[in-house]
Amino acid sequence: SLTSPLSPSLQIRAVDLALTERGLPHFHAITENYFHVPLPDCFNWNQVASLLGPEWEGDWYLVAFRSVRKENADSKALYDADALAHSEALESGGLLKYWYGSLNEKRECLAMCIWSSREFARLATRKPYHILAQSLAGRMYESYTLERWSLQKLKGETFFKLQ
């Protein structure tokens, strides 16, 4: 049978591997109030870009999930669905980093994925465990928002641009 090659946007690039090996192990929040802070100001983006090095250029796709959990939410069901969706995304490909913050005293939380491309993220949303996790949202959260960002770094630079 004939198989078509993967779209270039569904292939892991050398810059993705470099980011995963050099920069992302050092990625962390720089504020404990991350739920209320714009994403560009939540994390040590420029340190990560600097660790990646000026020789690399790339662009990535970010999805941030800000939520307020209901008081009576089933935390175990949420964590189980999240773990399954995370494993599924890793197997599916393109997920470079999953960051999950702690629930604060107002039951607010921020979770974020850094993807090699938007196409990898879209592919993951069609997977069974991701659909299961999405189906819990209405019952488990008072409110939630999805933010989509572009993360870019140009050759010669040691900082990211988030748009």
Structural class by sheet pairing and helices:
alpha+beta
Strand order of the largest sheet: 2-3-1-4-5
| Strand segment count | 5
How confident is the prediction overall: mean pLDDT?
A: 94
Low-confidence stretches: none
**H/E element order:** HHEHEEHHEE
Give the helix proportion (percent range). 25-40%
Main β-sheet: number of strands, strand sense, barrel status? 5 strands, antiparallel
Kindly describe this structure.
The structure is a single chain. This protein has helices spanning 14-23, 45-52, 75-92, 118-125, 128-140, and strands at 58-69, 95-100, 108-115, 141-153, 161-162. It is an alpha+beta fold. Strands 2-3-1-4-5 form a five-stranded antiparallel β-sheet, sandwiched between helices. A hairpin with a 7-residue loop joins strand 4 and strand 5 (161-162). Helix 1 (14-23) packs across helix 2, helix 3 (75-92) packs across helix 4 and helix 3 runs antiparallel to helix 5 (128-140). The termini are far apart.
